[in-house]
């Protein structure tokens, strides 16, 4: 009986392996664990592993000015508000800017409010936190990043990405200041290093990813790729997957968390390879969608 009491469950064993890999700085081990049926196994393991993979140190002292629970007031400006003079091509600083400009609304806050007000639809009952509270916190998180990074433009789908982070790293109704700080830093890191190409003034960076995806399909299955390209020169049907790291299209939180376990411990371009693998796996469905899109465009 004593032996049974000390026998680790697969879930607990997987969590311990993730925590050990983080402590050891073993990226290769994390990559292997991300391929297991449960990925990083638990919410606690992800709260440790995801910040590590995004190069956020939870023990780093708060450097931001003002209280950690500061709430920003969203603007009521209309979509026709003047655009920012910042250029999306400008080099963004790696250090956090001061809070002196946080009171000035970002040009895209009207759309942010529209999107956050209809967020958390896919995962309505996973936590005790009221949906309205989650939406308010998500709006504050996005607004804060945009006001600090005025060279960025909001794009629909960005709220899906940060919603996954929020539900994973900081889902409670009354998070601690430390939890909020980790969430904000992780949100900024994933914005600058996984999402920034989509937040400029054009789609050219995303079109570049679609061209890579097209090339991968040509190499893996030339007849299939040629058939697709007869109706659509680029695989636009995969744009949402690439844009939101699959967050917009995956119906359950555990599944998208597992996908992110895989993606976050690999280079950003791996999302294109994963999209290619899924397209090839769902070949029949893709062909049906291509035919439907071709009929609509005829």
Automatic annotation (TrEMBL):
Statement: the UniProt record of this protein carries the keyword ATP-binding: no
Pfam families to which the protein is assigned, alphabetical: RabGAP-TBC
Keywords for the protein's UniProt record, in alphabetical order: GTPase activation
Highest taxon, organism lineage: Eukaryota
GO BP, sorted A to Z: endoplasmic reticulum to Golgi vesicle-mediated transport
Gene Ontology MF terms in the entry: GTPase activator activity
Cellular component GO terms held in the UniProt record: endoplasmic reticulum membrane
Every Rab-GAP TBC domain range: 40-267
InterPro entries with a match to the protein in the record: Rab-GAP-TBC_dom, Rab-GAP_TBC_sf, TBC20/Gyp8-like
PROSITE patterns: TBC_RABGAP
Residue ranges with Low complexity bias: 67-96
Annotated spans, Disordered: 59-104
PANTHER family: RE60063P, TBC1 DOMAIN FAMILY MEMBER 20/GTPASE
Protein name stated in the entry: Rab-GAP TBC domain-containing protein
Species this chain originates from: Calocera cornea HHB12733
């Amino acid at each position: 009986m004593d032996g049974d009491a000390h026998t680790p469950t697969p879930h607990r064993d997987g969590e311990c392996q993730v925590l050990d890999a983080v402590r050891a700085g073993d990226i290769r081990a994390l990559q292997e664990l991300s391929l297991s049926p449960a990925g990083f196994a638990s919410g606690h393991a992800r709260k440790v592993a995801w910040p590590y993979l995004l190069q956020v140190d939870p023990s780093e002292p708060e450097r931001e000015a003002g209280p950690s629970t500061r709430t920003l007031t969203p603007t009521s400006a209309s979509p026709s508000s003047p655009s920012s003079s910042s250029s999306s091509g400008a080099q963004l600083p790696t250090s956090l800017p001061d809070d002196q400009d946080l009171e000035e609304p970002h040009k895209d806050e009207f759309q942010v409010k529209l999107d956050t007000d209809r967020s958390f639809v896919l995962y309505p009952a996973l936590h005790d936190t009221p949906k309205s509270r989650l939406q308010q916190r998500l709006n504050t998180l996005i607004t804060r990043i945009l006001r600090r990074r005025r060279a960025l433009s909001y794009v629909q789908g960005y709220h899906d990405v940060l919603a996954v982070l929020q539900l994973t790293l900081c889902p409670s109704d009354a998070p601690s200041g430390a939890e909020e700080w980790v969430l904000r830093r992780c949100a900024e890191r994933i914005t600058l290093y996984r999402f920034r190409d989509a937040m400029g003034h054009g789609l050219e960076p995303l079109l570049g990813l679609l061209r890579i995806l097209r090339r991968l399909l040509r190499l893996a299955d030339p007849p299939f790729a040629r058939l697709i390209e007869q109706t659509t020169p680029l695989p636009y049907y995969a744009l949402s997957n690439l844009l939101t790291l699959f967050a917009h299209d995956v119906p359950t939180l555990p599944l998208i968390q597992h996908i992110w376990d895989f993606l976050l411990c690999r280079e950003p371009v791996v999302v294109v390879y994963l999209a290619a693998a899924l397209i090839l796996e769902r070949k029949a469905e893709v062909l049906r969608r291509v035919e439907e899109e071709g009929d609509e465009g005829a």
